[in-house]
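input
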Amino acid sequence: MTPRNITHSTKARDALVRGANTLARAVGATLGPSGRIVLIDDRFGRVVATKDGVTVAKAVHLPSQEEQMGASLLRDAAIKVAETCGDGTTTCVVMAAKLLEEATKLVLGGADLVKLVREIEDAAGCAENLIMSRSQPAIGVGWDQKIANVSGNHDPRVTQSVALAFDHVGANGSISIRDGNTDRIEVDRQEGFRIERGHFAAGLTPESGLIELEDALVLITNRTLTSGVELIPILQSSAAANLSLLIVCDGLVGEALETVTGNHRAGSIRVAAVRAPGFEDRQWDMLHDLAVWCDAEVQDIATGRLDAAKLGAVANVTQDRSRTILRNPIGQNVPALTSRIKNLESVRDTTSNEYDLDKAIERIGRLRGRVVEIRVGAATETEAREIKDRIEDALHAVRIAHRDGVQPGGGTALLRAAHWLEMKQTLGAQAVRTALREPAAKIARNAGTPEHLAPMTVAIDLSWNTGCTADGEPVDMMQFPDPTAVVVGALRAAVSVVTTLLLAETSITIEESR
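output
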């Protein structure tokens, strides 16, 4: 058995708290528009300079295993907020550290631990309800850019790329992120139905690697095509109408491949082929999406012979090694398309599964015929990866802001909640109020405000949105909005991890070999 170190009671809790505070100090340095840069050794002889709280949190590894346990609990809770809300990591960490500090003082002062935890949870629940009740819809011009600017850490490259993407596809459109071939961010806005697969039949591929078809019929099947004979009526129908042909299938082999490539080389008909997207149930759904989009039918294994009457038609097909894009369907069944989009929107609005949500959004974007690809390049691979993370965060933040609304940023919403909690006189509420004020105070300190003035830098008044800068100038904090889900998610995660740490009586770590 591997030897284990077992630490109990105050000693265990103190080590966990030290680790959490160490993480909070490193991550908190990045908070706000004036947040500081953190330098990280990536273990490959390179130094990463970042203001991204998630990146900093992931890089913290402490020599003491007990302290690392506390840091890891706080880090994992904060990262979960970012994964579900697109932002909020640093706010969560800063709030949790302050709440932990205040609660620990109360416990050392003789407060009943279990009662204190209940009071903290009660006060946090009240604050959460108050914040949600003041959520404002993110409707109108400019909201996407404002939200992306905050979530993207005020990087204009991130802000502009995300705003351009949403301007093209809308709040729930299909946006993908890829590695770029340059040292900058490029936004490729496309019209049409995109399949994330390229050509796979060598005999149909020109040396340039780019295939373009004009006025093409579309054969859609989940079958692997093997027989050349059953394809002849399809090829004849295309040739007779002087139209090109796109074959979407699970595979094209043997006589079927020879028949298609032979006709293509002879010049009697221009043909392109793409492997059906997805797998199993996902493939079936995506093939039916395409069929509805271009007014075709999916010819499955059970239908027997291929039927030329079930082909769709599009004005243009572009295909390269990695993707196929169909544009301008001919004879689209609009009622069927509208119905399918509504069904997917219902899935999007009700599912709690992140994967299902992403797929529903992706399919809606394809059916609407508008897609965006953000290609991220940078001077180094490490920088590109960090930028991609912030773009993903900003995309997610914009989407949930459209779903759940926004709050004034800069910690203002949390400050207002702290003001409302003045009526609750419990020790737990006292600790929560102090924690709610900390994000705004930390932003002010990072901006250069003296420590003793930092808690007063954002005014609490009846307009709800108004704050002030470090030098006292008024500012509308809705210019820096936070999605409501981010604010609430950060509060929930902070309270959850703090109550876990407070109730920890024993820590067990693996003894390091010497």
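quick obs: Residues 454-464 have pLDDT under 50 and may be disordered.
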